[in-house]
């Protein structure tokens, strides 16, 4: 076993968890406002009025966190020709037949798609959320903006929830070592070589031929 | 203000059937506003403030009789003044008492996510229960009449209660009590409809208002406040009274089909990843030496 590789800096990890925890708060309170059958979520989080009070503020922190991620990871997240090739073989990834996949960089195609879904999701949630927050400030003559805010907020939230379910599943259950890496920051060389070979070769300068 | 729960027909944000729904049957109540005999004295506004314990608000001068642009969280009843030019060039001052319409199908209640924050009694009154209100403002988006208003200080929504506290004790609403011309009436929906139709017929046949009629919009299932208008084909002239008010389709879609689509997608997502794990399991890291990564 050789020495561990740093995958996420402390700043990246702290920011990821600021984003993750504020998102989960917004998710829980948002689901409470989504359905009467889930309103108990607001009750256990301190009641409806308190949930409604904090939801937009936590949302702002989440947005700030995602914008910071965008600033930090923007270049790593660009979808390249490598990703387009990878995406054509995504069925192998789903079936855990990774040996048939082209090597990935620091982030694979799926992670990049998740990032951009979350990024554009939060942009829509932020803009529509301001509309919902200050709904009375939208004049009656522009009331279509009130309705648009509702539709966009709900639609974007559902998209991020779908992405979130897959993200949590893959980060915890499916890709072992991923969860540890976002907590402690480190992965083993074997892990890096298996899941992100191009990135592994770049950070180690170790261009070992594949197969 | 909550009264007997047995008299509730609909509850906002409620999981399951409203307790006691349909146990007691009551007559639908209705307020009739005859705009053709309103003189714009604002006595109804004052009576509303007095009964509900609010003080007068600051006014905005708009070169007209209009004291403020719209109702407010502590000003539930406002006469809308409109200078209307008729086809023959003569001028009419249209005056319409604006307040919550107490829709049979309330958009505010449909949009509200908080359990019991908006209720509809069996007598048709739609009432906000501020102790259950979470201050989200969804009712603002649901209302086709721009009525619910937010109190920044208490973070609760307010609007006309149709004096549900008075009506519950067998009294008529405060505004009705104060009207000096008798343009306001209160009674059962059936009686008020008949009175309104009689008045509209009188206007058509004897007063040269051949388009006079009753405003009781079907798009929201009829309302608990109905108007007699000189020209029922142009309600917009009366301070922007919508000609065909409906619950916004976005709100209906959001609270109807989208709820099902969203719930199925979310549950499907959780089931999907679970099945994936059961079928394919976790990804293995390739051993240090060559190999295909399979155990």
Protein architecture, described:
The complex is a heterodimer of chains A (211) and B (295). Chain A is mainly α. Chain A has a single domain (5-204), classed as Fumarate Reductase Cytochrome B subunit, CATH 1.20.950.20. Chain A has helices at residues 10-34, 40-44, 48-73, 81-88, 90-94, 109-133, 144-174, 178-184, 189-195, 197-204; strands spanning 5-6, 186-187. In chain A, strands 1-2 form a two-stranded antiparallel sheet. In chain A, α6 (109-133) runs antiparallel to α7. Chain A is elongated. The model of chain A has no long low-confidence stretch (mean pLDDT 93). Chain B is of the alpha+beta class and 295 residues long. Chain B has a single domain, classed as Alpha-Beta Plaits (2-Layer Sandwich), CATH 3.30.70.20. Chain B is built from eight helices and eleven strands. In chain B, strands 9-2-11-10 form a four-stranded mixed β-sheet. Chain B has a three-stranded antiparallel β-sheet with strand order 1-5-6, with no helix packed on it. Chain B is elongated and about 95 Å long. Chain B starts with 7 loop residues before the first strand and ends in a 15-residue tail after the last helix. The chains are: A mainly alpha (211), B alpha+beta (295). Chains A and B meet through α1, α3, α7 and α9 of A and α3, α7 and α8 of B.
């Amino acid at each position: 076993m050789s020495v561990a590789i740093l995958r996420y800096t402390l700043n990246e990890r702290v920011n990821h968890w600021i984003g993750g925890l504020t998102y989960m708060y917004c998710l829980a309170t948002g689901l409470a406002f989504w359905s009467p059958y889930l309103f108990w979520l607001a009750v256990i989080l301190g009641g409806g009025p308190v949930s409604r009070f904090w939801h937009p503020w936590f949302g702002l922190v989440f947005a700030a966190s995602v914008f910071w991620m965008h600033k930090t990871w923007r270049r790593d997240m660009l979808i390249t020709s490598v990703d387009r090739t990878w995406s054509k073989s995504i069925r192998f990834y789903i079936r855990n037949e990774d040996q048939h996949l082209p090597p990935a960089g620091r982030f694979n195609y799926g992670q990049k798609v998740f990032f951009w879904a979350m990024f554009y999701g939060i942009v829509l949630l932020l803009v529509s959320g301001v509309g919902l927050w200050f709904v009375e400030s939208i004049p009656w003559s522009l009331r279509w903006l009130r309705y648009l805010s509702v539709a966009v907020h709900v639609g974007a939230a559902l998209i991020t929830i779908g992405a979130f379910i897959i993200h949590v599943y893959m980060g915890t259950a499916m890709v072992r070592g991923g969860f540890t890496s976002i907590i402690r920051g480190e992965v083993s060389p074997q892990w890096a070589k298996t899941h992100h070979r191009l990135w592994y070769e770049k950070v180690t300068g170790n261009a070992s031929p594949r197969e | 203000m909550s009264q007997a729960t047995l008299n509730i027909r609909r509850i906002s944000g409620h999981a399951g059937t409203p307790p006691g729904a349909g146990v007691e049957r009551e007559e639908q109540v209705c307020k009739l506003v005859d705009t053709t005999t309103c003189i714009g004295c604002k006595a109804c506004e004052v009576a509303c403030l007095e009964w509900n314990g609010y003080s007068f608000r600051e006014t905005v001068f708009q070169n007209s009789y209009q004291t403020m642009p719209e109702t407010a969280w502590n000003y539930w009843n406002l006469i809308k003044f409109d200078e209307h030019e008729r086809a023959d060039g003569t001028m009419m001052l249209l005056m319409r008492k604006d307040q919550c319409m107490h829709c049979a199908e309330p958009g505010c209640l449909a949009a509200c996510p908080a359990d019991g924050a908006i209720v509809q009694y069996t007598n048709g009154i739609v009432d906000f229960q501020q102790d259950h209100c979470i201050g989200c403002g969804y009712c603002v988006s649901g209302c086709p009449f721009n009525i619910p208003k937010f109190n920044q200080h208490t973070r609760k929504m307010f609007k006309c209660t149709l004096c549900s506290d008075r009506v519950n004790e067998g009294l008529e609403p405060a505004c009705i009590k104060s009207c000096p011309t008798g343009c306001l009436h209160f009674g059962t929906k059936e009686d008020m409809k008949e009175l309104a139709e009689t008045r509209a017929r009188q206007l058509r046949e004897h007063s040269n208002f051949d388009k006079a009629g009753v405003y009781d919009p079907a798009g929201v299932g009829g309302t608990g406040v109905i108007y007699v208008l000189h020209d029922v084909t142009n309600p917009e002239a009366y301070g922007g009274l919508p000609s065909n008010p409906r619950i916004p389709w976005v709100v209906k879609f959001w609270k109807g089909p989208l709820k099902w689509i969203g719930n199925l997608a979310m549950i499907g997502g959780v089931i999907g990843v679970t099945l994936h794990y059961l079928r394919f399991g976790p990804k293995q890291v390739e051993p240090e030496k060559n190999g295909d990564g399979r155990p």
